[in-house]
Amino acid sequence: MQVGIEDIRAAAQRISGAVERTPCVHSRTLSRLAGAEVFLKFENLQFTASFKERGALNKLLSLSESERKRGVIAMSAGNHAQAVAYHAARLGIPTLIVMPKGSPNTKIKNTQVHGATVVLEGDNLFEAGKHARALAARDNRVFVHPYEDPLIIAGQGTIGVEMLQAVPDLEMIVVPVGGGGLISGIATAARAMKPGIRVFGVETRNYPSMYQRLNNLPVECGGDTIAEGIAVKDVGSIALGIIKQLVEEVLVVEEETIERAVVALIEIEKTVAEGAGAAGLAALLQHPARFAGRRVGIPISGGNIDSRVLASVLMRGLVRDGRLVRLRVTMPDVSGSLAKVAALIAEAGGNIVEVQHQRIFGTSSVRSPEVEFLIETRDRAHTDALVRTLETNGVKTTFF
């Protein structure tokens, strides 16, 4: 291995005071939900809202004066970009960032706010990386890789040190995996400090590249994902070597489970996590048997999620839990029918969000118009009770 605990301790000393020592706290409600004792490390509370500051700063502080003057370049889907841009600006280092064309607007904007020049190139991180390396060679800039660098890995490993200092009796740590820099750093630190601890990785179903590499499968990745921060096809070779030795298993989770985890973190912990940041919790929700009854640490690795995406995830969560439903009601075309149905919904405890009165499209009879209701309820059982109330009172109701 090219990274050891001494490198991580040196990184911790180097970046101390410039990077937040984020809290690592027990979540009673998530523990009940997951069937394990859950401890969250809130890396979304870093200034740029992700763990990436640790490795980026450790790397930047290693540069010579001449390298700083020449400037740096990086490729990133967003969080590494913001981390490099922010700390490079603090240190007076000119910065150019290459981001894939589909990067979230919030991450592009925040990278520019921190003072970096942003170039959008390529449809994925691999293509952005090729362009970044070409520009680095052309302009003689230092290339700051997001994960394939021992200094980056050592910086990320400081999270593992802090987690075990805060909760020494952790039995497991579950870490999101993209290129592998975060998990390889944390695993190096955690296994050195507590050899018996078990470290798990987690990837999204659309980008299971580390899982495929570890299991000698062809690497097949692609498609849309809410976890763009770990949507990486080409994993780091340094990280791969460390993971093979120190990581128990890399788990794969569905997109829907990641969305559930994002919603749970907002509703329960009142904290915003991006898709990649919620992946660790998603692993507990999808694979509960592996963690049942254990003391499990999860880094909430980032909180940079686009507001529009977050709003959609929250609304989809309400629908998934049966707390937001669409009902189609057929009623006679007589005065007071709509008021009667609305009163029944109110009596059953439902909150009408929207009403659409259909007299032309989709009606079975011109004398029996349909009304579409969007209704907020407490849960699925409450929805079922509301529908029974309507039908008991002679109101024909269907879900749609």
Fold and architecture overview:
- By secondary structure, the chain is α/β, with parallel strands linked by helices.
- The protein has three domains: 5-50 and 149-316, Rossmann fold (3-Layer(aba) Sandwich); 53-143, Rossmann fold, CATH 3.40.50; 322-399, ACT domain (Alpha-Beta Plaits).
- It is 45% helix and 18% strand.
- The protein contains 17 helices and 14 strands.
- The protein has helices at residues 5-15, 28-34, 52-60, 65-70, 79-91, 105-113, 125-139, 150-166, 181-193, 209-214, 237-246, 255-269, 279-286, 288-291, 307-320, 337-347, 380-392, and strands at 24-27, 37-42, 72-75, 95-99, 117-120, 142-143, 172-176, 198-204, 249-253, 295-300, 324-330, 351-358, 370-376, 396-399.
- Strands 1-2-10-7-8-9 form a six-stranded mixed β-sheet. Strands 5-4-3-6 form a four-stranded parallel β-sheet, sandwiched between helices. It has a four-stranded antiparallel β-sheet with strand order 12-13-11-14.
- Strand 4, helix 6 (105-113) and strand 5 form a beta-alpha-beta unit.
- Helix 1 packs across helix 8 (150-166).
- The radius of gyration is 25 Å and the shape is elongated.
- The model has no long low-confidence stretch (mean pLDDT 93).
